[in-house]
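Note to self: the last two entries modelled the partners one at a time, which told us nothing about the interface. This time every component goes in together.
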Amino acid sequence: MDKKGSKSIYTNKDELRLFMGKYGIGVILFVMLIALIITVPSFRTTSNFINILKQVSINGMIAYGMCVVIATGGIDLAVGAQCALVACLLGQFIMKMGMNVLLSCALAVLFCAALGFVNGFLVAKFNMFPFVVTLSTQLIIRGLAQVISSAQAISMTNAQFKLVYLGMVGPIPFPVVMLFVVTILMYMILHWMKLGRYILATGGNEKAAIASGVSVFWTKIAAYVISGFLSGVAGVILTSKTSSAQSNLAVGYETDAVAACVIGGTSFAGGVATTPGVLIGILIIGFIYNGMNLIGVNSYYQTIVKGIMIIAAVLLDLVMNRKNR
Amino acid sequence: MAQDDTIFKCDNITKTFGGTKALRGVRLDVKKGEVHALMGENGAGKSTLMNCVIGLIKADSGTMEFEGQPYSVRGPVEAMEKGIYMIHQELHPEPHLSIAESIFLHRENMRGIFLNKSAQNARTAEILKKFNFNYSPRTLMKELTLAQVQMVEIIKAVSSDARMIIMDEPTSSLDANETEHLFNTIKELQAKGVSVIYISHRMDEIFEIADRVSVFRDGQYIGTKLISEITKSELITMMVGRTVEAVFPKVDVPIGDEVFRVEGLSGKGFRDISFCVHAGEILGLSGLVGSGRSETARAIFGLDRPESGSMYLNGEKITNKNTRQAIRKGICMVNEDRKNYGLCLLRSIRENVSLPNLESRQKGLFIQQGREKREVKDVAEKLRVKAGSIEHTGFSLSGGNQQKVVLAKWIMASPKLMILDEPTRGVDVGAKSEIHTMMCEFAAKGMAILMISSEIEEIMGMSDRILIYHEGRINGEVSREEIVNGTMSQKEILAKEFGQ
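The predicted structure of the combined assembly is written out below.
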């Protein structure tokens, strides 16, 4: 593009396009917010905002994990099944075996991280397609959950465990605090730490990453471990929310997580992802659900709108970043 | 002009890629039933011209004529329909197709909308028999050796009524027997009146099989000679580069102690390579593409595993299982394949430059962002990377600037040994000269530099010492004095590259 060797490459029009390419989705979130605030009176209460954040916290955790995996050029379809497995493990640990709640949660989450390791290992070691690997492990994990629970729901009556979802830190619900903490952590990993750079480089150009001394093998494994870990955390919150440990929880949750990533500007080709982007994606999906609920739109339409949003987000990205790709 | 026996003629063909003129008005005429050899150094324009002929790329201007008719095609399939078929150097057979399916690809035997497999197999069996190729038409391509795949390609060409077959380095992966078999086939084709354009670097083969030879140099047509009227030495003279010496900013610096040494290194594409590089020295590796230079470099850098041999850095024996280990020890490499091994184009200049250097720029768990920005900015300025800021992505940069960013990341790693594989390929003239100046600066700081280049002027202009590769082995060494005194000429180096 820089044919004459001039110092500045960008014109004003380019600057606008770059800006929209980077922050366009934020503008959309802002417009949605304003529109909902003006048109829906019940939307603009503090309690509704906190409610939205609480609702999106579960998808939010999963989406953050998904985003690092997609950033390496992969995908993790096993996240929903991992949530269900956590539920069934918690049912056994807390209700059947009467184990300590904190210990049970920690064990279940670590087990999910280990499953993430398996996903990552299969992808990185044998160069298998992430889609196929995680599609298979999804079936295995879901089946495992059914075996553990004998396909029966256990009611999670433990008062301490219920606090995971219902507990408050001051005026803020515990799941929102968790989402906040995870957002900060993910920001640090992706933008301030070596691992984040390696993840983005691996997804951006694997060979160039190798030629720069990046261990692509461990980077990919780390991404899937993060995804497994976070879906484990999401599973704990979800189990507490539903108060029921059953193997058919969180079916299709990977879709919402992928949607949040894509709306938030995560490139499916890998190499591009930002934490604020994914947060915006998570919030947009939350707004779609919440806003349409408040207006009284049938939930079937919400799904349609979500689908349209994804296509629109990808189109926006394509148009704005056409020259850069 | 003998019009009756000329089958193919092209004139005044030009082609420009970006800023480089790959073809500058070349011409070629091929007679019916002749084997016409094309020769020239790397990048002389032979393959580019052939790709224009089969329509893989479109020439900017010029005329082509085939069998007396004006000729132009949009792609290889159309070229095949018109009677010209090219067998590429790198064969990419569809592994899951049968021989019959490969031969009839794009012109399948049909019955309505369905494939007529039995008829296709029967016809293939007939054709194979004619060529004494004793395989079932149902044999899958993946079960064949490279020589057999090549044979299938030839059979395909002839069976589709090709009157001119282009072969790009057909013998590069064949052994002596297979080569002989190929030559017999070519002679049979010739007897049937099929013309063959034969691209090869192997002098002996050309003299054995070709009727005439055309020489290209720097995208220009030099001349055509009857094989019976030319000697090997004359042919090399025709191929040797420009008479005008390009100016290189070579600065002689004192050569220090040995930094790096390999002994008996062997691997895929190179055999028994031994050499050493000293501090401040630029060691040039010269040779034809595929002669094993890049493969040696890749093995040193840990991209590939060598089969045997040993490496020493500052006298200490080392092994590099991967690039990470090599970089930690102070070995780095600018890859010839910039597109794949150069930059993450989606990421910023800053992230690309600091990628191999993050470990030493961490405080606790975090990257020292301020220091990173400062250091990347410094090195980008020093290398005169032309960009709005270090936050711009690799996409926004020209080839020369991308290459400078690649160099910048290795400068920041302050290596002991820098391997530069085609450091100025696809780089404009200005940036090229800047990169050469930088190389001299690195050398002056005591870095040992291993430079691979297909440009013989660059090798001669920049190197303190030259090793000449021929077919995976070192076939000669040239010192700076020999170049400066003129005792070693371009012609002699080229002759060694061609194995003479």
